[in-house]
From TrEMBL:
Signal peptide (residue range): 1-19
Pfam family for this entry, one: PorZ_N_b_propeller
Keywords: Signal
Gene3D superfamilies: YVTN repeat-like/Quinoprotein amine dehydrogenase
SUPFAM superfamilies found in the cross-reference section: NHL repeat, YVTN repeat-like/Quinoprotein amine dehydrogenase
Domain of life: Bacteria
Entry protein name: T9SS type A sorting domain-containing protein
InterPro entries in the cross-refs: PorZ_N (IPR048954), Quino_amine_DH_bsu (IPR011044), Secre_tail (IPR026444), WD40/YVTN_repeat-like_dom_sf (IPR015943)
Domain spans labelled PorZ N-terminal beta-propeller: 44-203
């Protein structure tokens, strides 16, 4: 109860301004894809795809920073920490800079590079180099000055021939010159020259494609695109080859004691005499598939960044490496997820918009619970590729099924993959038209019915609907009579309603409904007389608390008014939701590519889209309560892959193409009784602009609110575990200050509850 009280106190505080930017969000990011590293005397700073973390080398404490804290969801390409100013500066592929003041955590977004009149493809930030309070920003068009004291940009240097754009990978200061490694030679100019924005002031020292340059003590070192490390001879003004590495050098940097060069499979550490004192090969780290991305050191401690496995560290003479990456999912692009009251499962396998799983994904699966993240690698999932859906047994949360859109159905028991159902050991079928010896078992949408049977869809075969009985027996249902061409059909999501009807999304035949009571199939598809969908390609289906079927297509939204019509109507028909906007009648989510629909405990609909973020609409769709995008919320991407809701806490999990976040919603699932009913906020203070929530309800509970004299001001029936009151008398006017009585009763009147709320105007 203490946790619940603290949670809702937090919610009340966050909601006081009722601004989307201040709502309660949580981030669940992956920090495994290391993009760049930076150091201070006491900490290592690491940039992953779109988040940061740092680790204090003395206390080992880790701090994370992501979009919840104000970072952009765009892809990071460079990182630098200034010890002098105690600021970290992050550069992005699109040219954005974000400066973090480490003293207080405040952030400044700097968009000068984004706003430059240059092609978007040339705005990538590649490297930061600080000299006398000025950071020289290497970009794909040239060099830009940024003043860390004033937080303002200075001059821009276009140093290519005749002042053209040129890719600058890295800069350094050596003997009074600024040197730049570019794709058209190493170029230099006197650092004190006041006219460095004049390309004529820059001299080409050597031609060719150069990817890195660093000052190491009294030496100037540079690396070309062939992987050869060169040393500069000041007397002759030439770069001479010193080391020839077998691969392209991805990163070269100098620390106080070492020159460190990183390739995909090895990290080379040279001392001040340029003697190789340590070579770390990827095979020395006992994790499969290690690919290095960057490396650095603090004193004699090495830090090795990888492309998929996070950050490792060890003393320079040690042979055992420690992974110090913050806990998180395997990667940010979570394709699908499912939440229970105590855990969250996530998978990464995907398919294209045309349901093509190739190239096949070799990813593992992840589980989040109160103990943190459990990541199960690909090597443990019995060869299951392109895992696209998660289905948890509601009667046994320790039994989870993973749909693979290539390999079949993976069963996970007690967090351990235990069995892979495929064409050889179950009723599942492989594609038949691809040849007798070709195996491709495309399982996607799945759901448990009330009796505990697991229903799954098997794409592009005649018997496209399968069911796994509680005794382990499989049964198939032919669908070639209901589908136009069953071998061309791909299934999306599936949901089962209270009548046991299975509703299946397809890409060519709209929604297929099936009930085994009579083995009846019915179709809702494109066309006024055949279902009234805007198109036949359906991506989302959800049954709400009023037994309506919400259907998301690639061209908009439709609603079947009652799933019970499956038993009575020969042809099921859906309707668009018409809303008034600027006094004009419009169709809700017209032409939107809808990727998912989730229903919360108050019967609100959370609707994900392919490129427009998340919409949260009211029970009937007439009001859009929230529209979250990257511009007004911590969403890292507007491309929404999946949404699911923890029915106990109301937390809404949103999987995007660039990370998982959650909105700590307030609409909980229906309870079995009214013992946990509560009201919040209470009291309602004058500055509060939100609604009063009455939660912990049973479904279809009758709620009446009266003033202290017994005058009725509001009445409704719950459609889940939560209802909201806007503190008006039936929407006409705001009620006055005072104590209001809340009478709650079950539909049959057997169970009742009385609560109070104080309103202060």
């Amino acid at each position: 109860m203490k946790k619940i009280a603290l949670y809702f106190l937090l919610f009340l505080l966050m909601q006081s301004t009722f601004a989307q930017s201040n709502l309660s969000w949580q981030g669940y990011f992956s920090y495994n894809e290391i993009k760049d590293l930076s150091v201070s005397s006491s900490a290592i700073y690491a940039a992953s795809e779109n988040a940061l973390f740092s680790r204090n080398s003395s206390t080992n404490t880790i701090k994370t920073t992501n979009t919840i804290d104000g970072l952009s969801g765009q892809t990071i390409s460079a990182l630098y920490h200034s010890s002098q100013f105690n600021k970290s500066i992050i550069g992005y592929e699109n040219g954005l800079l974000i400066v973090i003041n480490e003293a207080d955590g405040t952030m400044l977004n700097v968009v000068d590079i984004i706003n430059k009149q240059l092609p978007a493809s040339l705005k990538r930030v590649n490297h930061f180099m600080e000299y006398q309070g000025i950071v020289y920003v290497s970009c794909d068009f040239g060099i830009v000055q940024f003043n860390l004291a004033t937080m303002l940009f200075g001059d821009t240097y276009f140093i290519g021939d005749n002042g053209t754009e040129i890719i600058v990978s890295q800069t350094t200061i050596f003997n009074g010159y600024i040197y730049a490694a570019t794709n058209n030679g190493v170029r230099r100019a006197t650092i004190t020259n006041k006219n460095l924005n004049d390309f004529a002031q820059w001299q080409q020292v050597v031609a060719g494609n150069w990817t890195g340059i660093a000052t190491f003590g009294t030496e100037l070192m540079a690396v070309n695109s062939s992987g050869n490390i060169h040393r500069y001879n000041a007397a002759s003004n030439v770069f001479s080859p010193l080391f020839s590495l077998s691969q392209v050098v991805l990163d070269i940097r100098a620390t106080d004691s070492y020159l460190i060069a990183t390739t995909a499979t090895a990290v080379f550490v040279y001392n001040q005499q340029l003697v190789l004192v340590r070579q770390v090969n990827s095979s020395q780290i006992p994790v499969s598939g290690i690919t290095f991305s960057a490396a650095t050191s603090i004193g004699d401690v090495l830090y090795l960044g990888t492309q998929k496995n996070g950050l490792f560290t060890a003393a320079i003479t040690a042979t055992v490496f420690e992974n110090i990456t913050p806990m998180g999912p395997l990667q940010n692009n979570i394709f699908s997820l499912q939440a229970t009251t105590s855990s969250l499962w996530a998978v990464y396998g995907d398919y294209t918009v045309d349901y093509n799983p190739y190239p096949l994904d070799n990813y593992g699966i992840s589980k989040y619970s109160e103990t943190g993240w459990l990541n199960i690698p690909y090597e443990a999932v019995l060869g299951a590729k392109s895992i696209s859906r998660v289905t948890i047994n509601p009667n046994n949360e320790k039994e989870v099924y993973m749909s693979s859109f290539f390999s079949g159905l993976l069963k996970v028991v007690n967090n351990v993959p235990s069995f892979l159902y495929n064409q050889t050991n179950s009723g599942l079928e492989t594609l038949t038209f691809a040849g007798a010896n070709y195996y491709d078992v495309r399982i996607n949408g799945a759901a448990f019915d009330k009796s505990g049977k697991l229903w799954v869809t098997n794409s592009r075969v005649k018997n496209g609907l399968k069911v796994l009985g509680t005794t382990g027996q499989w049964q198939s249902y032919a669908m070639d009579n209901i589908l136009d061409v069953s071998e061309n059909n791909s299934f999306g999501r599936m949901v089962i309603d209270q009548n046991g009807t299975k509703w299946m999304a397809t890409n060519k035949d709209g929604v297929i409904g099936f009930n085994e009571n009579g083995s009846v199939f019915k179709k809702i598809t494109f066309g006024t007389d055949t279902g009234n969908l805007p198109v036949s390609d359906v991506r989302a289906v959800a049954v709400d608390n009023k037994n309506q079927l919400w259907i998301g297509t690639i061209k908009g939204l439709r609603v079947l008014s009652s799933v019970g019509s499956f038993q009575t109507d020969n042809q099921l028909k859906t309707n668009a939701i018409i809303i008034l906007e600027d006094n004009l009648a419009q169709e809700l989510l017209y032409e939107q590519f809808i990727t998912d629909i989730a229903v919360d405990g108050a019967n609100n609909k959370w609707i994900g889209t392919a490129d427009s973020g998340v919409f949260m609409v009211s029970s009937n769709g007439q009001k859009t309560n929230y529209h979250f995008t990257i511009s007004n919320s911590p969403l890292p991407s507007n491309a929404i892959n999946d949404i699911d809701i923890n029915s106990a806490t109301g937390e809404v999990f949103i999987a995007t193409a660039k990370g998982l976040v959650s909105f700590k919603g307030v609409a909980t699932g229906a309870k079995e009784d009214l013992t946990q009913a509560y009201v919040y906020p209470n009291p309602v203070r004058p500055d509060y602009q939100g609604t009063v929530k009455i939660a912990g309800l049973i479904n279809k509970a009758n709620v009446k609110i009266t003033d202290i004299e017994g005058n009725l001001v509001y009445e409704t029936t719950s459609e889940g575990g939560t209802i909201e009151w806007d503190t008006t008398a039936f929407g006409k006017y705001k009620v006055a200050s005072g104590v209001y009585m809340i009478f709650i009763s079950a539909q049959d009147g057997v169970e009742t509850k009385v609560k109070k709320v104080m309103i202060i105007r």
